[in-house]
Design brief:
The complex is a heterodimer of chains A (119) and B (95). Chain A is an alpha/beta fold and 119 residues long. Helix content of chain A is 24%, strand content 21%. Chain A has one domain: DsrEFH-like (Hypothetical Protein Ychn, Chain: A), CATH 3.40.1260. Chain B has 95 residues and is α/β, with parallel strands linked by helices. The chains are: A alpha/beta (119), B alpha/beta (95). Chain B: It holds the Pfam family DsrH. Chain B: One of its GO terms (biological process) is tRNA wobble position uridine thiolation.
Chain lengths: 119, 95
């Protein structure tokens, strides 16, 4: 079965890329696709627990990351270097994920059949 | 006396360091939108404060992003204060 990797590299409020990636993950997963989600660079900001985008009347799409497990989406990978550079601790993240080094993350990307980046 | 309004994330703004050279100690800096991510990095805060002590950040944008400021020298302002600031300086540059 072909696998689909989705890469998030922008902050949650930079554009609606974050919302689109969540819709794409849930849609693909509900069709039984083998989906994996990658958070790199500013994309790691989407995972911050403390977000309150409703203050700016933005939808809090990061809440639906919690729904990933009900769609059997367990392959959630986060770039360790991006977290450290932005001094984000793993306990500040709002979803269970694997924090990977660059080599590990690139290896996961390499064996995905289809890769989509949203920016 | 120029107010430099930043709105891009310092981590992904390619010319972040070079735009600092445009800022003199008589100018002001206002962080908005994704530029507020600088508040959670001591390194970026110090880079800004080295140019001028008048560094401000738009508070609603920090709350929306769940940012925990690491330095108190950068003052958080609301929209009304943002307007006052813009009027206080005789010019505003949006980077």
């Amino acid at each position: 079965m072909k696998s689909l990797a989705i890469i998030n590299q922008q902050g949650p409020l930079h554009s609606n890329a974050g919302q689109e990636s969540v819709d794409l993950v849930l849609a693909a997963a509900s069709f039984g696709q083998d989906v994996s989600v990658f958070f790199i660079d500013d994309g790691v900001f989407q995972l911050l627990k403390m977000q309150k985008p409703d203050v700016l009347e933005h939808k809090h799409f990061a809440k639906s990351f919690g729904a990933f497990e009900f769609y059997d989406v367990e392959n959630i990978y986060v770039c360790q270097r991006s977290l450290t550079l932005r001094n984000i601790e793993s306990n500040q993240l709002n979803v269970a994920c694997q924090i990977l080094s660059d080599t590990e993350l690139n290896a996961k990307l390499a064996n995905a059949h289809n890769i989509i980046t949203l920016s | 006396m120029i107010l430099h309004k930043l709105s891009h994330s310092p981590y992904s703004q390619k010319n972040f360091v070079s735009l600092l050279t445009r800022i003199t100690d008589k100018d002001g800096i206002l962080l908005t939108q994704d530029a507020t991510y600088a508040l959670s990095s001591t390194e970026y805060c110090q880079l800004l404060l080295k140019q001028t002590v008048n560094v401000y950040a738009l508070e609603p944008d920090t709350i929306a992003r769940g940012i925990q400021p690491v330095m108190s020298e950068i003052q958080l302002v609301d929209y009304a204060e943002f307007v006052t600031l813009a009027l206080k300086y005789n010019n505003v540059i949006s980077w």
